[in-house]
Structure formats: C-alpha cells, structure tokens
UniProtKB/TrEMBL annotation:
NCBIfam families: PRK05571.1, rpiB, rpiB_lacA_lacB. Pfam families: LacAB_rpiB (PF02502). Belongs to the LacAB/RpiB family. The keyword Metal-binding does not apply. This is Ribose-5-phosphate isomerase. Gene3D superfamilies: Sugar-phosphate isomerase, RpiB/LacA/LacB (3.40.1400.10). The keyword Isomerase applies.
Length: 149
C-alpha cells in the first residue's frame, strides 16, 4: 500500500504523528505538504492533489488533515472517484472502510488529539472493504458521478 498525506497549517502536527505511524506500519507514503511554518494556506490546495494521486492510481489511499477536517473532506470529495470520510472516532473509521470503501480519510487536528488520530488512521489503514451489499451502494455512487459530474 502507498498513501499520500497532506495537511494545511491547521493539521501539521497530526500529519507528523501519522507519518510516524506509517513508518511503524512500514507503509510507503508521499508527504504532499504543507511546509507552511506559521503561515496560513488554503486546504483545497492540498486536498485536490492528494485526491488526484488516489484516482490516478499513483497511490492507494490518501490522508488529509486540517483544523476540523471538514474543508479537506469537502474538497477531496469534489474529485471524481474519491470517497473521503471525515472520522473523529474509531467506530466511524472502521465502518467507513468496511461499508463505504473510502479511499481518503480526513481528520481535524483541532477536534482530536494525536493519540486518537493515530488510532483512527491505523484502523482505517488496516480495515478491508467487506463488499457484499455494500458493493451495490458504492456502484450507485459511481453511476451517479458518471452521469452528473
């Protein structure tokens, strides 16, 4: 598995935590920024490139972090083929992989701490899609995208 990871200025600390987790899990990753120091940047400038790497197949999944995770998830979901979930608890992290086959995870640094963020990311990274009736539901999303985007 290969993961693209990025954050805006509101998510740099959690991004570093998740990079440490990826190293521990021996998962290859591509750090796509930001290197913003104390400056403010726009979350969409980081969400779009990560999402595009996922849909192109260059990476298998993406992880995005901003202050709340909301801006990143909204932006990523504008990219055709992305199923980005905002998760701030472990149950949702597991369910979004099992039921929704999400390919991008968004989290908010101002909402959760580093320990919980690591736990959420680990669950999300190691949980497989269960398929079955959920495949039909994912198919309906893909069909809608084809007709309307």
């Amino acid at each position: 598995m290969k993961v693209a990871i990025a954050s805006d200025h509101g998510g740099v600390h959690i991004r570093e935590e998740i990079k440490g987790l990826l190293d521990e899990l021996q998962i290859e990753y591509m750090d796509m920024g930001c290197e913003c120091g104390n400056g403010s940047v726009d979350y969409s400038d980081y969400a779009f490139p990560v999402a595009e790497k996922v849909v192109s197949g260059e990476v298998d999944r993406g992880i995005l972090i901003c202050g709340t995770g909301i801006g990143m998830s909204i932006s990523a979901n504008k990219v055709k083929g992305i199923r980005c979930a905002l998760a701030h608890d472990t149950f949702s992290a597991k369910a979004t992989r099992e039921h929704n086959d999400t390919n991008v995870l968004a989290m908010g640094e101002r909402v959760i701490g580093p320990g919980l963020a690591r736990e959420i990311a680990k669950i999300w990274l190691t949980t497989e899609f269960t398929g079955g009736r959920h495949e039909r539901r994912i198919g309906k999303i893909a069909d809608y995208e084809e007709k309307n985007l």
